[in-house]
Specification:
The chain is of the alpha/beta class and 353 residues long. It is 14% helix and 26% strand. The protein contains five helices and 16 strands. The strands form four sheets. The protein has a six-stranded mixed sheet with strand order 12-13-11-14-15-16, sandwiched between helices. It has a five-stranded mixed sheet with strand order 5-1-10-7-8, with no helix packed on it. A hairpin with an 8-residue loop joins strand 12 and strand 13. The radius of gyration is 28 Å and the shape is elongated. It binds guanosine-5'-triphosphate and magnesium ion. The site of guanosine-5'-triphosphate (GTP) has 24 residues, from helix 1.
Length: 353
């Protein structure tokens, strides 16, 4: 299974502004001198690396990205205004290909620009054609069309957040609640046998401000997993590549503290103890989330949720996002290194907000 995020965009650069034909004029002397200015160059379209993004989701609601055209020149030697460039923000690791599959380039660094459609050249005004023996030129040139290209964008992604929890803790239910991914949910341990990935999107009502990140649901862990018990720790390698680990604790069991310390221990044996983390107490509709049960969580970063009723699911999505942003900022360099070792799963987009 490949874990890829893909989308198509049409990039259209701006047309160059036309040059103009104009002459200084005075009463009774129609053509004193050519003064028609050039047009402005058309704006170009660029992809720009943004380490605050982890998916291409934000580009799925719009296909055409057009930069501004240059403005026509004016009389009195006025050059037309240049068309503004258009910058399309993409996550690091985005590869751009033409429809024929030719690679145009990739964006690997924060702030890096990749030109994908060049703006059209400006047209020349008639003053450019002035010559000693050609004092009243009527020539000018039109601005050139900007480039237009259909692009396939592709991103190989790793998850930002990994869910680590005991079997049956509600990890898959959680992934279903926050994304459009549909991992199987059932009332028996080890329902999930392979990792699942979901893209979580948070957006405003108009889909203008779309933020997204990727969450991985991995098979349940039990005490002794690092020695091979249960499904073992083969899946911990997926957590190794995430920015943040979410410990998923089942509140319908009366041993949340045990679940937490066990998980920590297993993760420690895999060298994951220093990763950014937070704690999710699941099944809040049915379990014990009172002060006594959660005393051990005092001072820790935790949240109680219910995938069944939707309780605090929106808050969790926001909390995850803050976590991803915080770790991206701390860790902006490691992202690039990890691309070489990315492998993946199917990506499912969520349209919920
Ligand atoms: N009451 C309640 N039950 C839940 C909630 N979330 C999950 N469950 C139930 O808990 C059971 C296990 O849920 P899963 O999401 O499959 O758990 P999992 O952690 O993915 O389990 P494994 O894949 O076996 O590791 C199912 O019967 C779910 O219906 C919740 O918020 N409230
Ligand atoms: Mg599961």
């Amino acid at each position: 299974m490949k874990f890829k995020d893909t989308t198509q965009v049409i990039a259209k650069a701006g047309r160059g502004g036309d040059g103009v034909v104009s002459f200084k004029s005075a009463k009774n002397a129609a053509k004193l001198g050519a003064d028609g200015g050039d047009g402005g160059d058309g704006g170009s379209v660029y992809l720009v690396g943004d380490n605050g993004l982890s998916t291409l989701s934000h580009l799925r609601y719009r296909q055409l990205y057009a930069a501004e055209s240059g403005v026509r020149g004016g009389s009195n030697q006025c050059t037309g205004k240049r068309g503004a460039d258009l910058e399309i923000k993409v996550p690091l690791g985005t590869v751009a290909r033409s429809k024929d599959g030719d690679k145009i380039g990739e964006v690997l660094e924060n702030g890096a620009f990749l030109l994908i459609a060049r703006g059209g050249h400006r047209g020349l005004g008639n003053m450019r054609f002035l010559k000693p023996n050609h004092q009243a030129p009527e020539e000018y040139t039109k601005g050139k069309d900007g480039e237009s290209i259909e692009l396939d964008l592709e991103l190989q992604i790793i998850a930002d957040i990994g869910l680590a929890g005991f079997p049956n803790a509600g990890k898959s239910s959680l992934l279903r609640a926050i994304s459009a991914a549909k991992p199987k949910v059932a009332d028996y341990p080890f329902t999930t046998l392979v990792p699942h990935i979901g893209v979580v999107e948070i957006s405003d009502r108009n889909y203008q401000d779309i933020r997204s990140y990727v969450v991985a649901d991995i098979p349940g862990l039990i005490e002794g997993a690092s020695e091979g018990k249960g499904l073992g720790i083969q899946f911990l390698r997926h957590l190794k590549r995430t920015q943040c680990i979410a410990y998923v604790l089942d509140s319908t069991r009366d041993d949340m503290q045990y679940q937490f310390s066990c998980l920590k221990k297993e993760l420690q044996s895999y060298g994951l103890e220093d990763k950014a983390s937070m704690i999710i107490v699941t099944k809040a509709d049915d379990g014990l989330v009172d002060e006594l049960a959660t005393e051990f969580l005092n001072g820790k970063d935790w949240i109680a949720v219910s995938s069944l009723t939707g309780f605090q699911i929106h808050e969790l999505k926001e909390r995850f996002y803050s976590k991803v942003i915080a770790t991206n900022i701390d860790d902006s360099h490691s992202t690039e290194l990890e691309f070489s070792s990315r492998e993946g799963f199917e990506v499912v987009h969520s349209s919920s907000n």
